[in-house]
Amino acid sequence: MMKKKKNIFIEGAISPEFIAESIAKHQTKMNIGAHNIFLGQVRADEVEGKKVSAIEYTCYKAMAEEKLSEIRERAFEKYDLTCMHIYHSLGNIKAGEICFFVFVSSKRRKQVYVATEDIVNMVKTDVPIFGKEIFEDQDYQWKENTF
Amino acid sequence: MMKKKKNIFIEGAISPEFIAESIAKHQTKMNIGAHNIFLGQVRADEVEGKKVSAIEYTCYKAMAEEKLSEIRERAFEKYDLTCMHIYHSLGNIKAGEICFFVFVSSKRRKQVYVATEDIVNMVKTDVPIFGKEIFEDQDYQWKENTF
Amino acid sequence: MKKLKQVQLDDNQKKENMINIKYFGAIAEVTNCSSENIKKSSSSLNDIIQEIYSKYDLKHIPLKFALNQKIIETTEGIDVNINDEIAVLPPFAGG
Amino acid sequence: MKKLKQVQLDDNQKKENMINIKYFGAIAEVTNCSSENIKKSSSSLNDIIQEIYSKYDLKHIPLKFALNQKIIETTEGIDVNINDEIAVLPPFAGG
User: Fold this and answer.
1) Residue B98: which domain range?
2) Which of A55, A67, A115, A105 shows the shortest CA–CA distance to A83?
3) Which pTM was predicted?
4) What is the pLDDT of residues C67-87, one digit of tens each?
5) E strands along chain B, which residues?
6) What are the residue ranges in chain C where pLDDT is below 50?
7) A114 contact D CB<8A
8) How many CB atoms lie within 10 A of CB D76?
9) How far is the first Cα of chain C from the last one, in angstroms, to the nearest whole number?
10) What is the CATH number of the domain that holds A26?
11) For C95, which of B60, B124, B128 is closest by C-beta distance?
């Protein structure tokens, strides 16, 4: 049986309304007691006197989707979760906007924090997403995740 | 100087729209790179064949506000946070609705998970909030936090 | 009007050495009130608590006491003044 | 029309022993294209990678290779077929 591919990549920023809708969808699940949500927001970092105004994200989609489904499987094996969702932006995301959304739900709270942390780290290390930090003067540099 | 008391208690359930508005308010803060949100949702637990349909929350407000401001101070001392917010429902919260909302923001993600976990646990152990689990047949039992 | 009288009564009671006790959650259910004035027969917190325990037969219920919004770890050697706020608290259930 | 011709050309190239390489992010900037067909002069992945390295002088850039969407931990002893997908990946920056 073909596994249903989940829509993980979102063109543009992830809106607070999208997050609210995701939360609302879980209110019919009566066995969930704890949600934990991680949001990555684009920072206006300063590099040598220049400010980051946006990050432009691209990805190697075929591999990224493969990796994300592996991460899903690993997370469900390791942690006692009811639901989990991962969303990542593609394209130009301005400073202050949200580009990354990890949503973990469980019966009890105990594991949701570490599960979220683990999933966030796996996405950062294993998923081929690339980011170009664009400065206010349109100059840019390629972003690299640090651990 | 009098410390400004924050509005922590919300009459009724915490709506996904309220959470979205809280997130949106942080999009002007250009030094935030990571948010972590914990949400407590009322479970329709079964106890001896009867299902919980709602929890009715009350609190000892003067002491609860005092404790919550202590928790805020402790969290800012222990963790490198940009913002933090705690909201808790009072009154009748139905199964599936959200009664507890902890929102932590920081420049980097490293500490947000443990900060959230710590704040959630401090609220559960130290803040005088009381909960009556109401069953479908209107019978009830008093809730007690377990650790 | 009735409310005003109540306040005046409270003031009188305070003059007459009464102390106010607050009850919450499952405890308020046992005491059947959220707050009451009891006669301050002793200035020792311990004595007052013993009085509450025996008045309502609370010894089978796990509970905590707060004096002026602070949990009391030990009730020994603590004196209570007329304006102090004593609260009887059942197990917490927030979150 | 032009696009169709391109596809036909690719098919011809495959027949002529060409292999497709994908480039991403900072690497695509260096190669100035997101994908190209290069002549498969050897079936060894190692040889093909050496060819890409020297063609674009990539040795100062930290990068990873993926074969059919899987990161290659070691390029030694791996053979490549015509339909395999090889990708050259700069450091990841998701999240």
Assistant:
1) 9-142
2) A105
3) 0.91
4) 999 999 988 889 999 889 999
5) 9-11, 34-41, 46-47, 50-59, 83-94, 98-106, 129-135, 140-142
6) 1-9
7) no
8) 9
9) 40
10) 3.90.1170.40
11) B124
